[in-house]
Please model this.
Amino acid sequence: MTTIHWFRKGLRLHDNPALQAAVVENYELRPVFVLDPWFVANSRVGINRWRFLAQTLTDLNTRLQAVGTRLYVIRGKPEDVFARLFKEWDVHKVTWEVDTEPYARSRDEAIEKLAKEHGVKVCCKVGHTLYNTEKIIEANLGKTPLTYQGLQGIVERLGPPPKPLLALTSLPPSCTSQSNSPSGPAYDPPTLAELGVKESDLEPCLYPGGETEALARLDKYMERKSWVCKFEKPKTSPNSLVPSTTVLSPYLKFGCLSPRTMYHRLAEVYRGSNHTKPPVSLMGQLLWREFFYTVGSVTPNFDRMEGNPVCRQIPWVRDEKLMKAWEFGKTGYPFIDALMTQLRKEGWIHHLGRHAVACFLTRGDLWQPWEDGMKVFEELLLDADWSLNAGNWMWLSASAFFHQYFRVYSPISFGKQTDKHGDYIRKYLPQLKKYPDNYIYEPWKAPLSVQKAAGCIIGQDYPRPIVDHDIARKTNLDRMSKAYAAEKNKNPPTSNGSPAKKKKK
DNA sequence: TCGAAAGTTGCATAG
DNA sequence: TCTATGCAACTTTCG
Model:
């Protein structure tokens, strides 16, 4: 008989509770990844993330081979794949890691039902979050924490998350591949071509996928003890030429890196030293992830405005021209356009850069729905993570969690704080390279003689600003104020999602 | 029930 | 270079 471990996220051997649960009974282990061709053709996954996944699966296969088995990448819809495997592979048990996203939940429910019909045992373990998110809400008496501090209080009461499991370094002989195990290229990890990626479209790879790379990257940053202890997110730079933060997020998203492994490594580095604290510390960043995973796991329609009980209803006005200009880095604001260019090319931008472009698209300047921006991030980010993406877009658009809508990021002055010469803009928008420092953030203000000398005429070689920030900001502040007032008069969202009691006069 | 305080991570200006 | 303050004023939490 065999045991299937179904890899989805959690693409690692270290600290993988569900994988370890698959080898306790000494049946042959068959590690499976299901690649659904429909999903390849229809999902919002950009070429950089496909490459990251392909690299991750190849690395996972190599690491599994090193312990005496391999990865079986199987093409098809999960329901069809498992209906077939349960019969053909004489499956005793299937294990997988808990996934709290709505799509994953309904998928997993269907497979669980199928397994029962085939007499196959199912074993699910939490490994993608620090805590079991259900336990977090339970510990809060069934209420979803809607502030970071709320979450922090709960996890302080819960104590540290479980220690990571030791890495799987060898399998019991009975669990390894046998002479009659299926083999052949049909089960190999996908090539880029199979994923619909043209290699000529790709930029050089800055963040290779895979557990091997994830652990090396974690090691590299944890060695910088003083940097780790002094880390304060708001003081890191959104426009440095090399990332000012760890860029571990893509590895956490795919589960190449276990959040618990990272948590306890951080705790080890902190031990005996003065160190920064949440929310700004590195540990605090893991708690932000936990916060959005927790809220996202129980909030209906979390990735939409309508029907989402925590999300303020705001009358955004869709405008395809504005949207496309933002998406392709053609707003005429160099800081915004450089960020969007880096995002498209490299699949990553700094968290504060995301703040700047998200604010600009929504309440700051363009008044476009946050859902549309979220979808662009979902396509382009290596670390696009459903709960975090939706949660942060609501945050930045002042639709939920954050309400001080009058705090608007300036597309001109925000970037200057950490890069007054505009080196970042020069790197990603080389057409503006020769602009003098005093015009690099606002090239439309440069006299024509300066524009000519720089070899870039505004309105011709680089767009004019698509809106006037000072005017747009004022208009939008007024719109926000009206939207807030309108909602106040109706049913304001409350922590349990039910309409608040009517106020007595 | 009410007012005060707090809330990841705003900007511009003054000292 | 860093910190404090005014700007106008949001919601949620807490005592």
Remarks:
- Chain A has 21 helices and five strands.
- The two ends of chain A are 71 Å apart (CA to CA).
- Chain A has three domains: 1-127, 129-163+211-298, 320-486.
- Residues 469-489 of chain A form the longest helix (21 residues).
